[in-house]
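Predict the holo structure. Ligand: adenosine-5'-triphosphate.
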Amino acid sequence: MAAGAILEIRGLAKRFRARAPGAESPWIIRDLSFSVREGELLTIVGPSGAGKTTLLNMIAQTDTASGGEVRFRAQVAPLGDAKALRPGLSRQIGYITQDDNLLPWRTCLGNVLFPLEVQGRLDGQTRARAQSLVEAVGLAGFENHYPHELSGGMRKRTSLIRTLVYDPPVILMDEPFGAVDAQTRALLQADLLRLWGEGRKTIVFVTHDIAEAIALGDRTLVLSRAPASVKSEHLISIPRPRDIGGILTRPEFVTLYQAIRAEVA
Ligand SMILES: Nc1ncnc2c1ncn2[C@@H]1O[C@H](COP(=O)(O)OP(=O)(O)OP(=O)(O)O)[C@@H](O)[C@H]1O
Ligand SMILES: [Mg+2]
């Protein structure tokens, strides 16, 4: 494992089972390798259908790899055998999926407390942490609202802090701010950067939005079309703390944007 790495992906490959007997299913991911440093915010962009969600599913152990290796610290994910998987690796890997997945019968706060209840870790201290996260993302006053009574941005915030509250060392995010307007998205990005700056989790953040990938990331990987592999890697050396609004006109930003855009096309 590379020095300082918390996650390492080596020669990863994935093909799904063929739809008909005797048919060959295509490789979705092939020879994909990268590692993620502890505390890093790595962003990943790639064309739709490239295999980004499939990649996160294999890291989270909600799906098996067909070849290669996914390693979290010293633990290597089992190959091929779905029954041997440990989804979320005993709460060490948090996963914010492409839709917000809130429980509709639970309030905003009820959703945030849910993982703590399931884990048997709800006490005065964790409850206070949940409340401070609610306040940190501007949801104070909405604790007792049900998901259908929240705006799209509020649901995304709830989903974000529901994962932060139980403090997994690695968080995977799959286009977490996809379905909201540009204004709300910028606010969510600023929230994320602030919370990440305080807690320094390791984050792997998938997006199709190149500007978002640059604005948030320490480093951006560009995936090729399926079968996906890493096409290029860009270090984002724009200093932090970053001003999400102001960053778009910085010359380094524009240069990176043009380079990445030419590769994703
Ligand atoms: N369970 C499955 N069975 C068969 N094929 C699948 C399955 N899940 C995904 N695929 C295929 O794998 C490919 C990659 O899908 P994936 O969802 O990983 O792409 P993506 O990069 O996340 O796309 P998007 O940006 O649209 O979210 C697609 O061709 C998809 O049809
Ligand atoms: Mg996807």
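Residues 102-167 form one domain. The mean pLDDT is 93.
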